[in-house]
Design brief:
Length: about 325
């Protein structure tokens, strides 16, 4: 009796091994004799007992992170000529240390779950190899200056555009969420020389920026002066044109009046001459000059200079 009780209790305990819990951020892959038979979601599930079913829980919503490439804390390579991981060769035959930080998660599709469970032990290593190969390809196509100046922004974009396709070809069951640069620097042996070059390039760019700013200031000043001169020239032109137009109109009016008067009065030209002469004399008198008639110094049609000199005074020497 006791043996039957123990057997029944053992059978119940064995059957209870088929009851399993899947967390809210997980999915499970149930294999029965090596073949996938179910992919239950979160909650309490019942399947065949241990030895028949194997349940592998996969955290599909958890983001994971892997560092790829150069590790500053890694021990030196055993071989003296061997390059450490992540030390890449640029297109101009220089070395640069590159480390990428990849955030990835497990895909939520059924095929992604199956592939991840199948390659679970090597998925992260395969992902790292693919990312490092892309980083080496990117560095090989650029000079060391381009790598150091643009790598922090350009390299992650370049890798993300190509990494998804390579991961899909390997059927790892993961998807890469983002990529960032963790380390991007020249080797320690040549870093002082690179720092000196960077300082010189920074100084050059600073001087170029200052020169452009100074050129813009001077150009703005010249443009303002040009505009001022153009406005003054336009104003002077308009004033001269208006004055010339007024003078021409006045002359035309006087000419028309003379022609009208000449048809009725033969002495109109003489009257006009005396009128203009009077204007000239008035202008001279208005400037402080002394205007006197000379008609009474005419004798026999000639001007008596002697009498005129006595009247005006002898010329100064």
């Amino acid at each position: 009796m006791r043996f039957r009780y123990l057997f029944a209790l053992s059978l119940v305990a064995y059957l209870l091994t088929g009851v399993y819990q899947v967390g809210p951020d997980e999915r499970a892959v149930v294999k029965r004799f090596g073949r996938v038979v179910a992919r239950p979601g979160p909650g309490l599930n019942v399947g065949a007992p241990w030895g028949i079913d194997r349940v592998e829980r996969v955290p599909v919503r958890a983001a994971r992170q892997v560092r790829v490439g150069f590790d500053p804390d890694a021990p030196p390579a055993d071989a003296p000529d061997a390059l450490p991981p992540g030390q890449l060769l640029t297109g101009d035959q220089n070395l640069v240390n590159v480390q990428l930080v990849l955030d990835y998660s497990v895909g939520e599709g059924d095929d992604d779950l199956d592939n991840y469970v199948l390659h679970r032990g090597g998925a992260e290593a395969a992902l790292a190899r693919a990312a490092e190969a892309l980083a080496a390809e990117w560095a090989a196509g650029r000079t060391i200056d381009q790598v150091l100046l643009t790598g922090n922004s350009a390299l992650p974009v370049w890798v993300m555009d190509r990494l998804a396709g390579r991961v899909a070809d390997q059927k790892l069951g993961v998807r890469v969420l983002r990529a960032n640069v963790g380390v991007l620097a020249p080797p320690d042996e040549v870093r002082p020389a690179f720092d000196a070059v960077n300082q010189a390039q920074t100084a050059i760019r600073t001087r170029e920026t200052q020169a452009r700013q100074e050129a813009e200031v001077r150009l703005s000043t010249v443009r303002a002066l040009k505009y001022k001169l153009e406005q003054e020239a336009a104003q002077f032109r308009d004033e001269q044109l208006a004055q010339a137009t007024a003078d021409a109109t006045a002359f035309e009016n006087e000419l028309a009046a003379y022609r009208t008067a000449a048809r009725t009065n033969r002495d109109a030209l003489a009257a006009l001459w005396w009128f203009e002469m009077q204007l000239a004399l008035d202008a001279l008198a208005g400037r402080g000059g002394e205007v006197k008639p000379l008609d009474h110094y005419l004798q026999s049609g000639e001007l008596n200079i002697y009498e005129m000199t006595k009247f005006f005074g002898a010329p100064r020497r």
